[in-house]
User: Which sequence fits this backbone?
């Protein structure tokens, strides 16, 4: 069956970095646009970054552009999100998603606090 499993979240100080990973299984990963979303308590889930199926185009939310980088390894079926210069406002549960489907991971918690 379809699986998206996120990892790499944790507690980091403001200004720190984390790299999230999303391991995919059960579908043709390389055929899909993939995205990272995040949801903070009391807020709606919102798009953070998106990458086309072979990685040629990447889009970012204004709030993370220049600090976050989305990438993918189609051979390993893994989606990544490199997050640098983290701010308290980046704290949320981060989810990976296959565009146009109902495939979502379970999420990984990112906490940014001193």
Assistant:
């Amino acid at each position: 069956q379809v699986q998206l499993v996120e990892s790499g979240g944790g507690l980091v100080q403001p200004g720190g970095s984390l790299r999230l990973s999303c391991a995919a299984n059960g579908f043709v990963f390389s055929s899909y646009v993939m995205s990272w979303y995040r949801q903070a308590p009391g807020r709606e889930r919102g798009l953070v970054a998106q990458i086309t199926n072979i990685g040629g185009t990447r889009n970012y939310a204004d709030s993370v552009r220049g600090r976050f980088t989305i990438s993918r390894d189609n051979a390993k079926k893994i989606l990544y999100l490199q997050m640098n210069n983290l701010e308290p406002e980046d704290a949320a549960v981060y989810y990976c998603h296959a565009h146009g489907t109902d495939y979502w991971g379970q999420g990984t918690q990112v906490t940014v606090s001193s």
Remarks:
- The first strand starts at residue 3 and ends at 7.
- The CA atoms of residues 70 and 81 lie 5 Å apart.
